[in-house]
Amino acid sequence: xxxxxxxxxxxxxxxxxxxxxxxxxxxxxxxxxxxxxxxxxxxxxxxxxxxxxxxxxxxxxxxxxxxxxxxxxxxxxx
Length: 78
Fold this sequence. Notes:
SH3 type barrels, six-stranded antiparallel beta sheet
């Protein structure tokens, strides 16, 4: 994985990373930030659903499920 352009959807269960940038526009970006996904926050990948979408993450001590399309908007550093 190239660390300078890694997105959250590229991580596998058991990995964790720090948020570098939250992408998206308008309501989608605001919703992600309202859920606690902001720059500098640590996110851990817990598990994926049987078909791989959505994926469950641990953010700020709570469990959050995101679809792959949403996770692609979040740039992280390992």
